[in-house]
Amino acid sequence: MNTPSIFWLVPAASLVALAVAWIFYSRMKREDEGTERMREIAAHVRKGAMAYLRQQYKVVLVVFLVLALFFAYLAYGAGVQNPWVPFAFLTGGFFSGLAGFFGMKTATYASARTANAARQSLDRGLKVAFRSGAVMGLVVVGLGLLDISFWYLILDRFTDVAGPQKLVVITTTMLTFGMGASTQALFARVGGGIYTKAADVGADLVGKVEAGIPEDDPRNPATIADNVGDNVGDVAGMGADLYESYCGSVLATAALGAAAFASAGSETLQLKAVLAPMLIAAVGILLSIVGIFLVRTKEGASMRELLRSLGVGVNFSSALIALATFGILYLLGIENWLGLSFSVITGLAAGIVIGQTTEYYTSHSYKPTQKIAGSAKTGPATVIIAGVGSGMISTAIPVVTIGVAIVLAYLCAIGFDIEHMMQPHNLSQGLYGIGIAAVGMLSTLGITLATDAYGPIADNAGGNAEMSGLGPEVRKRTDALDALGNTTAATGKGFAIGSAALTALALLASYVEEIRIGLLHNGVTELTLSDGTTRLVEQASMLDFMAYYNVSLMNPTVLVGVFIGAMMSFLFCGLTMNAVGRAAESMVQEVRRQFREIRGILTGEGTPDYARCVEISTRGAQREMLFPSLLAIVVPVAVGLVFGVAGVMGLLVGGLGSGFVLAVFMANAGGAWDNAKKMIEEGHFGGKGSDCHKATVVGDTVGDPFKDTSGPSLNILIKLMSMVAIVMAGLTVACHLF
Amino acid sequence: MNTPSIFWLVPAASLVALAVAWIFYSRMKREDEGTERMREIAAHVRKGAMAYLRQQYKVVLVVFLVLALFFAYLAYGAGVQNPWVPFAFLTGGFFSGLAGFFGMKTATYASARTANAARQSLDRGLKVAFRSGAVMGLVVVGLGLLDISFWYLILDRFTDVAGPQKLVVITTTMLTFGMGASTQALFARVGGGIYTKAADVGADLVGKVEAGIPEDDPRNPATIADNVGDNVGDVAGMGADLYESYCGSVLATAALGAAAFASAGSETLQLKAVLAPMLIAAVGILLSIVGIFLVRTKEGASMRELLRSLGVGVNFSSALIALATFGILYLLGIENWLGLSFSVITGLAAGIVIGQTTEYYTSHSYKPTQKIAGSAKTGPATVIIAGVGSGMISTAIPVVTIGVAIVLAYLCAIGFDIEHMMQPHNLSQGLYGIGIAAVGMLSTLGITLATDAYGPIADNAGGNAEMSGLGPEVRKRTDALDALGNTTAATGKGFAIGSAALTALALLASYVEEIRIGLLHNGVTELTLSDGTTRLVEQASMLDFMAYYNVSLMNPTVLVGVFIGAMMSFLFCGLTMNAVGRAAESMVQEVRRQFREIRGILTGEGTPDYARCVEISTRGAQREMLFPSLLAIVVPVAVGLVFGVAGVMGLLVGGLGSGFVLAVFMANAGGAWDNAKKMIEEGHFGGKGSDCHKATVVGDTVGDPFKDTSGPSLNILIKLMSMVAIVMAGLTVACHLF
């Protein structure tokens, strides 16, 4: 099949993104890194971050090799999988890690430079930090689309299948690449999340409480680990996470398009359905870059003005993307281009609403967080109760928004043919519309991730300023930059969660289509339904497969799957919460050992072994991350082997429902506790050091693993479980107990 | 149709239960209430409890009248509902309240008597408290079965419908009685839960912190409210809750039996399916009484021996019930009596496993709670993190257990005909087996609730001993009694949660059957399925209805329902958590006012206005409980009107999945925090007053609304939503947007 020339927009856009990222990176590198002390501290953090990556990659490499060997066996030994699968899986993991690596490298170079720029002015500081954040945003989307176009071209050339099955095979193989990205992202998020919170708690407990030295003091061996943690958790972890979300939404929609339109007979229609999400993403990249260049601010701008100028960039990009979508889908000539364009807008709009809601429930400019801060008057217990209460209530609007978006995206795609909304053709079109909405929501990622990644850079700049003994006015400026970052980070989390829900739905639909491939692979060409009628597997609809496998809400295996899925989210969160506790314990022991064994460390004459401390904590985090992450891979396979297709679908739906809501709850409760503390630090309710402040510090500490470890990992969990189910669909179809 | 003579076992068993309860009650009343001071305090608590009930009943009465008028309109105005529905609804609420009222009355009489008995010996104290607990257990099951038999006889006589539809109409009308019980229970649990925690926090904050007087000091106007709270939350609330669970499981299974076997043609078969759950419950009552009489202990028995003698009673009852089930189902002559008997045993066994798991995760004899206590060394934040982590992990075994129970109960009921497990007849039989398993799990309620209700009585006895200034050795004995109660309470919560999950599944199945009635009511006699075939509504199977309404996991309206259902659990918990905070605030203001306005209150010369304080707090609790409780009624109706049958089924499944898991998490985390504090109070990690103790007090305070307000309310929420959906099925079928 000929690749239409419009496709080349996809690799072109990705190369433009990478080029612009390179320009921003070079400019940032040319900035002055400040005093000797600032350079030294930045170098320690950089070294520590690399130490983390070394250890992380060792563990993840083993996991990837084992899984790749398994896939290689399936492909070359058993002959039941595409020979490209092991490679696609490996490169997905590799590029996901690479996006995190580049983001982290940029961040570790940018922190001292931001602090130094903040010595001159608030505005200079913002510029350096935001540009560095933009590097990360553009690298993620650039690498993402580059890999997608690369694999599309490779597989298009080397896939030796005729007819509509060709694109199905191509997109399915590409989903393995998505599974690689998800696996890497889960490890990065969970490992990084455990690491950053363990180092944080460990540094505080031994340094501040036992040795009595101030926070961020360079004599504390865990201080560097603490700063490294911000980089590995909030930068590398988030980079891999959003890389996975971005690719996941495009790949899931493409796979759904290929599979759903395969039975429709028209290969042109099918090809367009595969290309549409890539093109929307490509246009999104280009217009995000335009938005980034629009973020300009005059010398001495106020915080409100800064926030507004960031908003101008994001909103302008969104509006342009919305307009451009109509054009690109029209040019592509896809069936029902108008309806699908409105599906994209539904996704864009839902993302904005969720972002705003997140801000409302987590910013101390609004009542919910102010009430949490006020509850500190009666101690830490009421802070926790208020935060849990507010966080749980905050799930309502995002869930309803996603619900409305799902229905609207579906209906737009089928031209509001409500009466026949479940007929095979409409079902495929409608579900495809939901996938396209997810792509729409993430199309602004180039710029939203820039504002998002800017946060931890500003945070680290503050740490650098403190450790280097820069003046209080510099620290005040970095604090202001940090506060701005908190607000934008909230929006970013909203996008990640919302898009995960939509993407998971698209993956669920892809799973049903995968069953066809699984059946054909197992030599089944005809289905006999319970009413005695038969269907050719090649021509059967999604609903036929579901009827064949009794995927009904009355089937006890579906219901058991729903229960297990709902439980998985909680179990996963519980395991990661406890892991933070245990890893912090290892850190405490290591710091105590160094204080005991390295001479002159407290007088400043001996140098603490930062790297060793970082490595110990990293190893702890890596050990702790293995079990929960592997669980996410093993459970869908196990449920499939016992309960078959019906159980797996129950599992995915149950996991999606409770995982989505739990993720919103944890992210918002954590964010609100953080900002309630910040509000008191700004002087309300007694200010820093008061009993109220101490009460909110407890809330903040509890919120840390909520918002930075368990909560964001859930987004990846629900997608990874779906991708595992898809990749293993052939096995499930071949053997299951029920 | 003739009522078979075996039916009379049901009212007979209920009358035996009530008679035994009366005997225990009279014996308890003959015990000495102790010193003048003890009587006085008990009288205050009793008066406060009555003040609560007055206020509670005012609010609930209004809600019931509005709903009953609405049902009356549907029955007499629109003519679309059975004329008995409004009355059934009202009596369900009335008897549920009555069960709570009797339990509370007994508890308020028993507390001083238990304290007085504990002055003589530990054993005497246990006897008085346990017998009083047994009153509650027997009243709940006795009233429950009495009402069920009463309505069955009334409706059997006055229902003017011929053929298999008669039993369907009877059992559906009886489900309205279940909805009344659920509504009352939800108000009792939420209101009582908010009340008890608000009074607790309010009394502590003003009394201990501001006025500097010790806990349980009679000068504190909120002290009585605090003790009243234990009665209204843990006794009246739990009584109404378990009354609802008990009746709910029997009614749901009976309705499912009637509906599912209506199309099978045999009215005898149908009648037997309706009577079986009632008979199992009746046998359970009688054998529970035997178990209660077995709870004897020799003078001066150790704690371990006491616990063992309680265990002997429960286990003996369970074993006898298991055996008797085979006999009773054989005598009834129900189809597949052997398989169904094994379904009952599945339920019984699952209840025991869940109870044991709950004990493992909440008792400080085991590692999880010990670790939470140990984490107090690093402050309150790590206590919260450890508790949340452990609570989330604790969901795994109960969920898997219920999953196994669902599948086993289903398969036992269909004779392990796995290959045809989804054929219409097997589907009805299998789902009925799940309902029967829920009845089996709750069949031991007479005795398990006795051990459960014993807890708050022992707790109140301790309060009375403290306020009356009894010696430390008495307080030590009441503490020991209290600790025993904590362990048994954990088991009781496990039963309540597990049975809720199974009952909700039975209700879900009943809902599908309700659609038939709804369609017939709306004059629809034939369905045209998407494949063009038609079915007579009278003969259509459950799966036909689901196909007709597109209840498929690929239908976006189902998925939106799942999301909203999952969110409802969180929203409901968030609202009730926040309500506790706000109600505590009102209490604080009232206590401050009394200190200010009533002269000589702090010198002991003026008497605080206990009743006013109780009323203020009650009114606060009542105001706060309205919104979340009404939400549970309104949302299923709204989802039905917008998204139709498919949306409602998604809602129920989503709510069930996440509600069940969330309830287990909250109950276990709360219980573990409570016992971690108790462990430290017993002298570990520095003991009472240490920093570790303070840290666990924070955990305990956070856990209070988890385990006593939000968590247990979820059990009711998921069933109430199902019952509302069932009662409103006719409306949903008649008008919906999608």
From TrEMBL, chains A, B:
It catalyses: Na(+)(in) + diphosphate + H2O = Na(+)(out) + 2 phosphate + H(+). It is found in: Cell membrane; Endomembrane system. Signal peptide: none annotated. It comes from the Bacteria. One of its GO terms (molecular function) is inorganic diphosphate phosphatase activity. GO terms for biological process: sodium ion transport. Its cofactor is Mg(2+). Sodium pump that utilizes the energy of pyrophosphate hydrolysis as the driving force for Na(+) movement across the membrane. PANTHER family: K(+)-INSENSITIVE PYROPHOSPHATE-ENERGIZED PROTON PUMP (PTHR31998). This is Putative K(+)-stimulated pyrophosphate-energized sodium pump. It comes from Alistipes dispar. The lineage of its organism: Bacteria, Pseudomonadati, Bacteroidota, Bacteroidia, Bacteroidales.
